[in-house]
Amino acid sequence: MTDISVYAQLRREILSCALAPGSKVFEQELAERFGVSKSPVREALLRLQEQNLVDVQPRSGYRVRPISLTEAGEMYEMRYLYERACVMRAITHASDAALASLHDHLLTKARVPIPEWIEANRQFHSSLARVCGNQRLADAATKLNDQFDRFTFVSVTRLDQPPDFTRFNNDHLALVQAMQRRDKRRAAAIVKNHIDASRERTFQALASPAIVP
């Protein structure tokens, strides 16, 4: 297994909660499981630490970062601020062609495997950031989006009722159409309602003691 494969596999396991929030992980155990030396495992864990997915535990290895309601609230607040700023700036500055390109990232299928939908959802929100025309803002928003996969996974797999992908897909389409009309008021409302719905679903899922240590 390559260094990139070790990182990718660990990231998948953390984002899918296969490695449970709060669980401890050790370089030697992971190296044996993946059949590699400790060096690529250490490098992978350091990358995951930079993404706030693992914490270093002095003299006792690493811990998968717990998911808390407080952190979720802060993350959703940041997401709203970044995404609204990206959308408003894109409406003002992006070309018609750039806005039209957002259609390439829309998912129209209502029933898809959860990992596929999560990936498509992340790609769409990252594409919103890329068309805003401010590289620093886009980089910050994209980095935040990369950390959201775990919240998204929890929100769509930990409730009794399955998620309505059709609604989320329709929100994305409506947002792109509002942006193409240069309708800032409508676009801002869609961003707020979309993120509010996602936050509510995540909070309901996080209320489970099995998720919040």
From TrEMBL:
Signal peptide: none
PROSITE patterns reported for this sequence: HTH_GNTR (PS50949)
Gene3D superfamilies: GntR ligand-binding domain-like, Winged helix-like DNA-binding domain superfamily/Winged helix DNA-binding domain
CDD domains associated with the record: WHTH_GntR
Domain of life: Bacteria
GO MF term set: DNA-binding transcription factor activity
One Pfam family of this chain: FCD
InterPro entries found in the cross-reference section: GntR_C, TF_FadR/GntR_C, Tscrpt_reg_HTH_GntR, WH-like_DNA-bd_sf, WH_DNA-bd_sf
Stated name of the protein: Uncharacterized protein
Source species: Pseudorhodoplanes sinuspersici
Lineage: Bacteria, Pseudomonadati, Pseudomonadota, Alphaproteobacteria, Hyphomicrobiales
